Amino acid sequence: MPLEADVLAAFPAEVQIPAELVADAVAASSAASPRVLVVLDDDPTGTQSVADLPVLTRWDVADFTWAFSHIRENNLKSAVYVLTNTRSLDPAEAAARNEEIVRNALAAAGNTAGAAEGKALRLGFVSRSDSTLRGHYPLEPDVIAATVAAETGEATDGVVIVPAFPDAGRVTIGGVHYMRGTGADAGTLTPVAETEFAKDASFGFANSEMARYVEEKSKGRFAADSVIVLDLNIIRAGAAAADPAISAKAIADAIESATDSTPIVADIVTENDFRALALGLEEAERRGKKLLYRVGPPFVRGRIGQEIRAQLSGEEAYAGNTPSEAGGLIVVGSHVGVTTRQLKALTEQHSAARIVEIDVEKLLGDSAAGYLDETVDTVVESLRTGDVIVHTSRLLIKTDDAAESLRIARTVSAAVVAVVNRTLKTFPPRFVIAKGGITSSDVAAHGLEIRHAIVRGPMLPGIVSLWEPVDGPAKGIPYIVFAGNVGDDLSLADVTRKLSNTF
User: Fold this and answer.
1) Same domain (yes/no): 212, 277
2) Does residue 233 belong to any structural domain of this protein?
3) Could you report the per-residue pLDDT of 127-174, keeping only the tens digit for each?
4) Pair (340, 284) in one structural domain
5) CA of 102: how far to CAs of 20, 462, 472, 497, in Å?
6) Residues 460, 392: one domain?
7) One-letter-per-residue 3-state SS of 138-175
8) What is the pTM for the complete model shown?
9) 343 and 284 both lie in a single domain
10) Is residue 411 classed as helix, strand or coil in its secondary structure?
11) CA-CA-CA-CA torsion for 18, 23, 25, 30, nearest 10 degrees?
């Protein structure tokens, strides 16, 4: 494994860029025609890097109209997240959902209720996906581009691909996407194709070099040598003069040739790199380039010029609401290694919590309904005296058939949702933590019946977000969205400890 310091030695130092500089550039471009980024988030964990933005789990025109109005009336940064959950869908379903969302967003943008002072909204579209490269690529940006063209006549020149998530140890250097080592391996870089994530049953891949990943996933439609690579020499072009404008020009110049959805890959190692990229993209769009974005979680924060929000305290998590005396509900569905280690640490440290395991084999059997009834009864009774940890059995049932793997995943997720929803209606918990992407999506939209929420900020620096439901039966209950593949072994316990009254 190469050392990060050695890989970075070939490139300039980062350019120091305040978030305010990006925010000012965005505001200037929005003066005549306000722009909102619509973030199609393929699982809800994309919100972990932002704060004080609206989140939708439904996407009717009226939902977008609410979000656009909420942004304007509260003077928020101009972005809204839409929880698509498409990583849990098959390709045809994912395509249909992306198309519907884009059409409805564009329709809402044309409503006077969605415009500021009578000015029509411009929409930018972000396809937010996994920082370890799992998801429906290039399907989702393809569908977004095609729908925008069909609805507006506007062709997409380039698709900017930025999977980096430095907060969680994912960085792109020299066009290669890496995972940072931890513990004894701190300071090292592992190409992401050599990690467990590349072996995903539904979205596996073989290439860590992003241009070759694009060629692999597009089945040769985009050859590796046709991909524009914005390496750190370009992103940090202003380093010698300490001038962000030089970087912005270099980025915009490099994108100039993009046409017909040309893939554009960007190196990112630090927050300053995100901000340099944002200024360059702003300049490219000012010149007339039409861009879509396929990105990891922190991109939007950098693109809109939002400061990094400090982690929320337990007191801040309950601000404006009176916490229940009931126990909290921690729901764990992800099966990646870090989640299993976090679950082990939580159960070892939180001796007062009741542990309820959902046996996946029983869910797939003939007596699933009766088994679910028993599980709900156990959870409800246990919440009366303390926290409850509900987790699926750690034995992952896999098949060689991607569609069958998704079917099993859906069956398990449906059971988790049923447990959460029936518990909520019977004895509302003090808080809810959902661990895992598909798990947290389904728990939000169906288990807690959240339609509109505000992401308040992170519970851990940059990686775990707190949503405040603004409607439905979960209103007033802090909801914590916790990706399966982030944090160290103690992170789940750390978040639970902040919220619990028995830990």
Assistant:
1) yes
2) yes
3) 999 999 999 999 999 999 999 999 999 999 999 999 999 998 999 999
4) no
5) 29, 28, 25, 39
6) yes
7) CHHHHHHHHHHHHHHCCCCCEEEEECCEHHHCEEEECC
8) 0.91
9) no
10) helix
11) 180
